[in-house]
Amino acid sequence: MSVTEAFARVLSRSGGSSRAPTLDTSHNIVLYLEDISVSFDGFKALNSLNLYIEAGELRCIIGPNGAGKTTMMDVITGKTRPDEGSAWFGQTIDLLRLTEPEIAKAGIGRKFQKPTVFGSHTVFENLELAMAGDKSVWKILFARLRAEQIARIEEVLETIGLKDHRQVLAGGLSHGQKQWLEIGMLLMQDPELLLVDEPVAGMTPQETEHTAELLVGLAGKRSVVVVEHDMEFVRSIARTVTVLHQGSVLAEGSMQEVQNDPKVVEVYLGD
Ligand SMILES: Nc1ncnc2c1ncn2[C@@H]1O[C@H](COP(=O)(O)OP(=O)(O)OP(=O)(O)O)[C@@H](O)[C@H]1O
Q1: Distance, CA 174 to ligand 1 centroid (Å)?
Q2: NCBIfam families annotated for this entry (predicted)?
Q3: pLDDT value of residue 148
Q4: Which end of the chain is more exposed for a tag (fewer CB within 10 A), N or C?
C-alpha cells in the first residue's frame, strides 16, 4: 500500500474535516439497532435484529459462521444499508443518513481483523498521521507538533503498551503489536464507540492476554463492541455476550447465562 493510499484510509476513518454532530447519550445508550434487516439476493443476512449498547460497556458478539456479525458491523459503519429498520448513535444521530466518513467523524471507530498500519513509518508517526485530519502527509510529518498533541500521542502509546517502541518502524512490529498500534490509531480520533473484529486471531497467548487488558481498559470511557470466535478470550473479557444466529439475537446475558442456554448450546457452543 502506498503512503497516499494508506493516508486515504486514515482519512476515511477520521471522516475528513467537516464538523461532527454531537453525541447525546443522556439515556445511557450509545447505539440503537432496531428491526434491522439486510438481504443479499433474497437471503436474509440480518433478520429484524435488535441491539442496544450502553455507554461505556464492553459487549462481545459471538455466533456461528454466517450469523450476520460482519453485516451488523457494516450496517453500523455505513458500509451496508439495511432494507428495513433504524440505527441511531445516541439519541440524535441517525446513522442511516450519514456516509461512512461522517459516521467515523461522529465517533464510531472500526478495527478490522487485518492491521493496516504504515509499515515504513515509526509507531509515533503512525499515531501522528492518525491524528491528522485532512492535511497532507508531508505537512503532518514535517509540521511541529503542539505540546498537547504530543501529550495525546504519549497517552495513547501508554494505553496500547508501545511506549518503548515509539521509534520502531511499524513494519517491524509483531502481529500483536501491529494490532495494538491500529487500535491506538483509532484512539487518536477519540471514538465513543469502538468496533473490534476478531482482535486476537493469530496472536500468541501473551499477546491475547495483553489485548484483553487493553480492551477492558478502554471500556468505561467509551463503549467497545468485540466480535470474536475465541471463546476463551470472550470468557476472559465479557460482561454481556450477545449471541447472533441467522441474523437475529438468539440469546443475551452473562457468559454463564448464554453458555447454559439450550438454544445456544444447540447452534453454537455444542459444536
Ligand atoms: N455481499 C454479500 N453478498 C451476498 N451474501 C453475503 C454478502 N455479505 C454477506 N453475505 C452472506 O450473509 C451471511 C452473513 O454473513 P456475515 O459475514 O455477516 O456473517 P458472520 O457472522 O460475520 O460470519 P463469519 O463468522 O464467518 O465472519 C452469510 O451467509 C454470507 O454468505
Answers
A1: 29
A2: urea_trans_UrtD
A3: 82
A4: C
Domain count, the chain: 1
* Band of residue 27 on the pLDDT scale cut at 50, 70, 90: confident
Taking only the tens place, the pLDDT of each residue in 153-162 is 999 999 999 9
Q: Which of 36, 37, 40, 248 to mutate to test the pocket of ligand 1 (most atoms within 8 A of CB)?
A: 40
Digit-coded pLDDT (tens) for 74-133: 999 999 999 999 999 999 999 999 999 999 999 999 998 777 899 999 999 999 988 865
Residue 77 belongs to domain spanning: 3-269
DSSP character for 106? Answer: H
**Complex ipTM, two decimals?**
0.95
pLDDT tens per residue across span 200-215: 999 999 999 999 999 9
Best residue for ligand 1 mutational test, from 49, 62, 65, 243 (most atoms within 8 Å of Cβ): 65
User: Which atom from ligand 1 is nearest to the alpha carbon of 229?
Assistant: 25
pLDDT for res 186: 94
Binding-site residues, ligand 1, Cβ < 6 A = 40, 45, 63, 65-71
Please, are residues 94 and 178 in contact by the beta-carbon 8 Å criterion? Answer: no
Concatenated DSSP letters of 180-237? HHHHHHHHTT--SEEEEESTTTT--HHHHHHHHHHHHHHBTTBEEEEE-S-HHHHHHH
Any idea what the CATH number is for the domain that residue 84 is in? Answer: 3.40.50.300
Which cell is 198 given? Answer: 476478531
Instruction: Name which of 268, 193, 252 is nearest 225 in CA terms.
Output: 193
